[in-house]
Amino acid sequence: MIRSISEKDRELYLQLTEEFYHSAAVLHAVPRTYMEKTFEEITSSGVYAEGFFICDGEEVCGYALISKSFSQEVGGKVVWLEEIYLRENSRGKGLGKEFFSFFKKKYASARRLRLEVEPDNVKAQKLYESLGFHELGYKQMVCDKAD
């Protein structure tokens, strides 16, 4: 089951994002205040970000964070799977594939679905390729504004 994250889910969302940002799936941790700002965006406007819990029955097993933009390169909306995290004991049960089915249906009007993966995470790359994703070929560069 996939459900939207709501105001009542604050502590569970923050707990799961802390777990994710202290895992091998990311290059570095981020300050908790960033997670709190993201939660506020998810639960207020949803214009830039949406959040979902991935559940096995009533048990929350992980989350997904979606970001949205527009791209001239593809002539329309781009939906980023910014983060997907399943707790270790919930992996291999088909929950990730269930989420991707939901993701593709919910954002069927988007011109591009996009995600990123840590270069060493070969298992995830194989999963994403089996779901129709391919490497874009751009090297990402950023210029972060200091707090």
Keywords:
alpha+beta; 4 helices; 147 residues; globular
Describe the structure.
- With 147 residues, this protein is an alpha+beta fold.
- The chain has one domain: Gcn5-related N-acetyltransferase (GNAT) (Aminopeptidase, 3-Layer(aba) Sandwich), CATH 3.40.630.30.
- 31% of the residues lie in helices and 27% in strands.
- The protein contains four helices and five strands; from the N terminus they run E-H-H-E-E-E-H-E-H.
- Strands 1-2-3-4-5 form a five-stranded mixed sheet.
- Helix 3 links the parallel strand 4 and strand 5.
- It is globular and about 40 Å long.
- The N and C termini lie far apart (37 Å).
- The relative contact order is 0.15.
- The mean pLDDT is 93.
Give the helix level as a range of percent.
25-40%
Under CATH at level 1, the class stands as Alpha Beta
Tell me the total number of β-strands.
5
Largest sheet: 5 strands, mixed
* Quaternary form: single chain
Q: How would you spell out the order of helices and strands? A: EHHEEEHEH
What percentage of amino acids are in beta strands? 25-35%
What structural class do you assign from the helix and strand content?
A: alpha+beta
Major beta sheet, strand line-up:
1-2-3-4-5
- Taking all residues together, what is the mean pLDDT? 93
Using the CA coordinates, give the radius of gyration. Answer: 15 Å
- Which of globular, elongated, flat, extended, rod-shaped describes the shape? globular
The total domain count is 1
Q: Terminal Cα separation, in Å?
A: 37 Å
Low-confidence stretches: none
Task: Look up the CATH topology.
Answer: Aminopeptidase
Number of helices: 4
- The CATH architecture classification is 3-Layer(aba) Sandwich
